[in-house]
Amino acid sequence: MTGQADRHTARWRAYLRDCDALVGFVEPMQVCGRVTRVAGLVMECVGLRLAVGSACTVPLPSGARVEAEVVGFDGDRLFLMPQSDVEGIVPGTRVYPVEASVPRPGSVPHPRRRPSDRARHLPVGDKLLGRVVDGAGRPLDGLGPLGSDEVAPINARPVNPLDRAPITETLDVGVRAINSMLTVGRGQRLGLFAGTGVGKSVLLGMIARYTTADVIVVGLIGERGREVKEFIEQILGPEGRARSAVVAAPADSPPLMRLQGAAYATAIAEHFRDQGKNVMLIMDSLTRYAMAQREIALAIGEPPATKGYPPSVFAKLPVLVERAGNGLEGGGSITAFYTVLSEGDDQQDPIADAARGILDGHIVLNRHLAEAGHYPAIDIEQSISRAMHTITSHEHQMKARRLKQLYSRYERSRDLISVGAYASGSDPVLDQAITLHDKIESFLCQEIHENTGMQQSLAQLTSLFD
After folding, report:
1. Secondary element (H or E) of residue 395
2. Block means of pLDDT (10 residues each) for the chain, length 466 residues?
3. Residue 163 in contact with residue 330, Cβ under 8 Å?
4. How far is CA 135 from the centre of its chain?
5. Which NCBIfam families match (predicted)?
6. CA distances in angstroms from 318 to 90, 189, 312, 314, 420, listed in the order given
7. Residue 358 is inside which H or E element, if any?
8. What are the backbone angles phi and psi of residue 340, rounded to the nearest 5°?
9. What H or E segment, with its residue span, contains residue 223?
10. What letter would DSSP give residue 286?
11. How distant, in Å, are the alpha carbons of 92, 261, 375 from that of 366?
């Protein structure tokens, strides 16, 4: 009886210590600032001392509220970026800080020590599967409230690179050209580089439907509203949507919502990874994310650098991308596909160039292939998977390299062949490329409703040379 009483007393003491610690989270009075200026996308506020990234709310005379975030400061003036339209705000409107929710007794009593815990918390968990939400976690699908009690900060702490599990396993994405020629590793981060209208959304939908990942998280950032609905209902389909969580921040959303949507989609993927699941994160597109940051940075006075992009854009890209990847040893993983828009099909676009340097591979879609009816329009000459050599067999690598050599040799001599200027027997490698060209073209093409698994892809690759 004495031991049981001691344990009971110890639990009560621990509970009271937690309650005592939680008292420190309560402000003795509610502080507020006031709006002094609204110019373009930015509001200026005085009277508050808040860290960059803190959330605020601005009540309007109509009873509505405008959510905003601190994106910078100058002296005692805070620069706020609203999440919605600023119509209705008048000079002197009050601005209230939004504190992180007070933790329950028994939880870790140190949420104020980390900036990520003071950032905005949004719903995560299994209740988001099959749902479509915006960048603030509000349902867009008309299916009612999410009903999720789990929340997480949208800006989590990065994983120590030395603690990450290495990429050792392949991930089947159901696309023959990728499985065989650009094999994806579980926990790899790849870029899908393409101009407009060459089939990147369709390819993403195929990957989402046919992948063997446990959970799919889709971030539709800066896309047209029509494309959002089309991707969800037609390209993703009921089968893919059932195990997917979709975060949509279309082009008409404020730039802060587009930034937050990308961070929120990553936070959802991190939550499932921490549960030990293998997650497929699809972000469409990384370029719109960079454009949103450019709008914010220019609005608060940051000088432009490369092609109008301020330096903060190139600092934020790796911060977002590095959150994906493998977790701790024995844990889950996030395999990420980020689409990168190449303006005018220019592969030297600054965002495309920066993305190539921070991703683990890139898949380039070629407009000429798309115009010729070659789908998916993957240019295997310009594409590469940097993890392929560590996760595939030597035999697989040699066959993929051989196919690439034959494809490249044919493309370089296409004009000679088409006008009949090439004499058979002059180049044995080119002779084989001409003989196998139709088979190679058929191998690299795939219908949208065709699912080709990893083993089937390798068998078909082998059969090309038999």
Report:
1. helix 394-412
2. 72 78 64 90 91 88 88 91 86 84 49 55 91 92 87 84 92 95 96 87 89 93 83 80 91 91 95 94 92 91 86 93 91 94 71 92 92 92 93 95 94 87 87 92 93 94 88
3. no
4. 13
5. FliI_clade1, fliI_yscN
6. 38, 11, 11, 7, 49
7. helix 350-358
8. -125, 120
9. none
10. H
11. 53, 28, 10
Strand spans (E) along 372-453: 384-385
What's the pLDDT score for residue 306?
A: 78
Residue 439, Cβ density class (10 Å: 0-12 exposed, 13-18 middle, ≥19 buried): middle
Give the containing element (helix H, strand E) for 320. helix 311-321
Residue 59: enclosing H or E segment and its boundaries? strand 55-59
Spatial separation of the C-alpha atoms in residues 161 and 328, rounded to whole Å = 9
Strands 244-249 and 278-284: unpaired
In whole angstroms, what is the distance from residue 372 CA to residue 202 CA?
17
From 152, 54, 61, select the one nearest 96 (Cα to Cα).
54
Q: Other C-beta atoms within 10 Å of 88: how many?
A: 12
**Structural tokens at position 334:** 């996030």
Alpha-carbon distance 291 to 288, whole Å? 5
**DSSP summary character for residue 235:** I
User: 3-state class of 81 per DSSP?
Assistant: strand
How far apart are alpha carbons 403 and 433 in whole angstroms? 9
- Which ranges constitute the DSSP H helices of 277-380? 286-299, 311-321, 350-358, 367-371
Q: Is the peptide bond before 408 cis (omega within 30 degrees of 0)?
A: no
pLDDT of residue 234: 80
3-class secondary-structure state, position 130: coil
Nearest Cα neighbor of 334 from 349, 321, 351 is: 321
- For residue 354 the two structure tokens come to 């920066």
Task: Could you list the beta-strand ranges (E) of 75-111.
Answer: 77-82, 94-98
The identity of residue 220, as a single letter, is: L
Encoded tokens for 71: 């994106």
Greatest alpha-carbon pair distance for the chain in Å reads 99
Instruction: Supply the DSSP string of 407-466, one letter for each residue.
Output: HHHHHHTHHHHHTT-PPTTS-HHHHHHHHHHHHHHHHH---TT----HHHHHHHHHHHT-
The CA distance from 288 to 228, in Å, is 14
The two tokens of residue 43 are 């509001």
